[in-house]
Amino acid sequence: MQPDDDGVWQPLVERAALARRRNDTEELVVSLHEILEKLRIPERWSGERALRMKNLELSVSKELGVDSMTTWLCPCLLKESELAEVSEELIEELAAAKKEEVLNTDLGSLGVIQLSVARDVSDWTMADGRFIWHGAHACLKLILEGGLDVRGRRVLELGCGLGLVGLACARAGAKAVLLTDYDNELLSACSRSIELNHLQSAVSTEKLDWQQVSSGGPLGPRFVDRFDLIIGADIIYDADHAASVFGTVRRLLQEQVAREGILITGEPEKREGVSELDRLLSLSEVSEVVSHGRHESLSWEAMLLPEVAVADNRKHRMYRFWWLSEAEQVSND
């Protein structure tokens, strides 16, 4: 079965639909068994099983007018017969295949990174667990072009989402990468992506709640480690995000969990939270020329990045943060 070939499913779906309309249980069972067998053919490449599922669902939508085969099969579960058994098996197979869906992202010199797709994520800002935000592309461009050197460094990514930026850091030579997010489904997808890309020795995951960290809650044992760099790519949307992300970066730097932090954001007209971050920093304007400032003992820089060749080529910003030592504070004062 070729990656773009969904035609193989159409006759099978039509046959199953016809059998059900005729109340021909025996024929329906045979048809469902055939579908199940084709779904279970051993994979030739990672994600092929999930692609079969996706193509099957497309055929089901065209032929049956329902959003998924699971919806169509649910009434069959009520019957105490072989029909119920094969329907349950097929539903379980579809659910398992969905968890294995893979997005292949070509990063040029870093090669192709395979991303496991997350579903049922808990926050609308994560879309459907498939979307790579524009700021992530801007961050990747910096890494690929040498504007952000991660070689030999220990990196902690905030709000990792599907983990593309952190995985790219590992491919680019980072010594260790910790992917953090508060959504368990996303972290599970990241764990699968780590395995798909054979990066288990360099990349790991950990749950992190910005609200808890920024309000002074306990840090887990993973954050006893020292990191060279915090990265957050397009993780500030509304005002609450700005306050909690800024508070998290500030605390991790203050407690020497990391040496410096980098945030890549959109522009204020696209992200309300960026306006709030500027307010917190008393920053009036950002341009291609680096702006400097201090927030108590936290030093920061901000600059406008070149346009990124994705979507509408929108502008992005880079904020850099680091904590001043007592001697540096006295010197600067």
TrEMBL record:
<protein>
    <submittedName>
        <fullName>Protein N-lysine methyltransferase METTL21A (HSPA lysine methyltransferase) (HSPA-KMT) (Hepatocellular carcinoma-associated antigen 557b) (Methyltransferase-like protein 21A)</fullName>
    </submittedName>
</protein>
<dbReference type="Pfam" id="PF10294">
    <property type="entry name" value="Methyltransf_16"/>
</dbReference>
<dbReference type="InterPro" id="IPR019410">
    <property type="entry name" value="Methyltransf_16"/>
</dbReference>
<dbReference type="InterPro" id="IPR029063">
    <property type="entry name" value="SAM-dependent_MTases_sf"/>
</dbReference>
